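User: Second chain of the day. Same drill as before.
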Amino acid sequence: MAAVPAVASTRSAIDIVVPGLFRQPVPGLAALEHLLARSSRSVVPASSEALLFHLFGHAPIATLPVAAVRLLGEGLEPGGEWLQADPVQFVPARDHVLVMPTEPLDAAELGAIAEEIGRHFELEVQVLQGQLLLRRAAPVGVVIAPTARVLGHSLGSVLPEGREHLPWLSLINEIQMLLHSSAVNRAREQRGIDPVNGLWLWGGGPLPSPVASPFTCVWGGDSLLRGLALLGGCEARALPGDAAPAVAVGHGRQLIVFPEDADPAGLEVRWFRPLLAALRGGKLSRVSVYDAEGRAFAISRPALYRFWRRPRPLESYQQ
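Assistant: Same format as last time:
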């Protein structure tokens, strides 16, 4: 799995993560299309969480300890073992059950479900930035796939191998029964919104060992990003409104992580145009773009002179 090469220049290099960049392509993003056209493409881990661990230099592991690192990023002590609990829909089909996405829960709904689960199972539950975390150890040695990799697949095809996972599956089934009678789901049905009938539990394990960060600074509001920055010993800052503060740093390698709902048109005006101008002007030595679905694009300043590579629409990168 290729990683973007280290930058030898003393000028700043910027890595940008835009989850789902090509999921719903927006026309008219000329600066981004120009950057992509002149880039070198490589393959990286195909989920936001796995990509961040990879970018911070952590060795690939079967089960990412996402929950513990999120807690660290929120300034909490991740004592014991935790699991991330993502709302899903378990949809019965002819001879199997599909794991499907569901309409997001708002903050009040997440809080209510956390209280129901905590009270019923006598578990410690945290709600962090729209994420549910349960203090419950995952089965030792069992590989549980991230939610992004199980959505759209049959439950049987994504279950861990062996029988060690049965207590974990039992908890998922018990939570499903609890959610069936949840006041949150009754209210959703009254509003014409599909109920959430399950949680996918994953991301368990203890905090990983610290790894020196390749970044001098990271920008973004995600708790996982901040936790990895703390482990790596680099500075974490809130995401600015535009590219100017990151360009002004002037040295080292920086990482910028946008939320899932970032507006591509706004990113074009406030980020990609200024970054392209900074790359042309020599203020940056490289810009790398990641879509958190396995695609990476690295654009160095000399690569901008690949005039024979014509910009093309974003949808052409979906393949």
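Confidence is low (pLDDT under 50) at residues 1-9.

User: Great, on to the next one.
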